[in-house]
Amino acid sequence: MVPIFLLLADSILAFMWVTTQAFRMYPTHRQVFIEHLEHYVKESDYPGLDVFICTADPYKEPPMGVVNTALSVMAYDYPIEKLSVYVSDDGGSKLTLFAFMEAARFAAHWLPYCRKNKVVERCPKAHFGSSNPSRFPETDQIKTMYESMRVRVENVIKRGSISHDYITKQGESEALSRWTDGFTPQNHPSVVQVLLENGKDNDATGHGMPNLVYISREKSTDSPHHFKAGALNVLLRVSATMTNAPVILTLDSDMYSNDPQTPLRALCYLLDPSMDPKLGYVQFPQVFHGINKNDIYGGELRHVFEVHMPGMDWLAGPIHAGSGGFFRRRVFYGCPSETLEMNQGRQVSHSIKSREVLEMAHHVAGCKYENQTKWGRKMGFRYGSLVEDLYTSCLLQCEGWKSIYCNPKRPAFLGKSPINLHDFLNQTMRWSVGLLEVAFSRYSPITFGVQSISLLSGLCFAHYTFWPIWAIPVTIYAFLPQLALLNSASIFPKISDPWCWLYVVLFLGAYGQDYLEFVLSGRPTQRWWNHQRAWMMRVLSSFTFGLVEFLLKYVGISTFGFNVTSKVVEEEQRKRYQKGIFEFGVPSPVFLPLTTAAIINLVAFLSGFAQACRQRSIEDVFLQMCLAGFAVVNCCPVYEAMAWRRDQGKLPLKITVISVVLAWALYSASSMAF
Question: Looking at the keywords, is Repressor present (predicted)?
């Protein structure tokens, strides 16, 4: 059986290596010149832009973070009358609505402040929290307003209720009165609240303001809601009843704008007459702020945004990354040939607060609206996977749409990456389940490759969607050779055998390629080491659990819920993270594969060393000891959290004890097998 397991592991590793080379065949890097845009279109002829921001839980995604994101895009260098921001609150929380009522008031001062002083960082938190902040005559006054808003919102979140002293307008009281005793996040009617309307609401200087609309779609326990894809489809329909802008920007709740001219960069592609008319969307990378010096969790996702995206750009185009995508609205309504003559977005001549508009908006936000329609199948964001972004972009490219990757020097958007290991692994586990759902859907990577008439595109999507099968070879190599070593069994060629050196060359070659790409991009060796360790942790824990979860779901035993990644960070956690200390802290089963592997590899390495000393030869167990030693070095943070640390981020004793029991059980079973 051992040779069969090793053959399986090597076959999967070879498959993943071959598919990843497709990204490196023709990498494409683009540059735009915004100053040339005026030669193609007047500012008055810019298309309308609807911005979609999704949030789901006021306690995991603090409303002030969502507010900062919304304010940053409301302050875009874009015609105010053509800009609308729609916020989807899938948690159905009046606390989030209150936060945006406060944001609407603050925006009346923030927008003219940014416009007058040509502020570049238009996220208030980033602007006021900068290490080298810009100073203008009004800065202190605006900062005081922002802090006042922040304190009120955070007090409301802390108490879980809204004080009557905070309600200053009659309309606000009426809006909040919809939250009755029977109103729950899982069961409630739709709520559509227009907080700002262009042409009706003006800022402190008398200029107009963009539309700002709060939406909480109807939820019912007897109707599927399809997680984020369902929320985005409601935003598509509600915005169509109000502004129907031909261009749509999707953003995560924490992914704020870092460049006020980003929409103009997208228009340089979308309005360029020389571009392929099948261009469906422009994708910007996700860049994360607050990552510590050596990025211990590999949170910057370098391979995705610096290798994979440019590599796919030359083909049908990059995938949608869940945030930072500028879409033509018509891509959500059919293939290019079907939507070529589609209405490009009507000029709204009526108030978005009018009775008929709001009635229609509430209707299309209902949980029964999609029944017996094509929504989620042929229209909108597609259902069937927890990674609705990749799945939807895959199907759009099947239909003939193209995409472009735009990666400017100044990041267009900045977001947060998890800073504790538990959230990091849980997020990856959710992705892995979603990727497998795509891989085994009717639009598998093989089908995609055939339909798009591109073998390389098919290989790229195959590499993405089959990511979780990395769990198989990594798990085999993390346990099997070490268990054999503990039982004094040699399963690899001896050091004198040429096949032994083939293993060494392949290992060093793959790692060497990755290392060279990393350091040539200007990053330090320590950061590369942390990235490869974080990748191993993801594979061994998240991908393994995701693979098992998908298989259980596939046979109808279990279903995987959408677990929102927490954006809340405790101060002590932040301090440990900035020092490069791993954060365990909670007794979660996702740590068990890591801790069990750490124990087995350490004991196996010591056992192999003892064997080599007794026999005065390392020839028989050279490769096995190398693997065990490599794992031991990677597991140093785990040993530290198990044995030496005394802070709140240490590994819980419960997990350590269970891991010891599991390691002993595996050793006992292997003793009988060997």
Answer: no
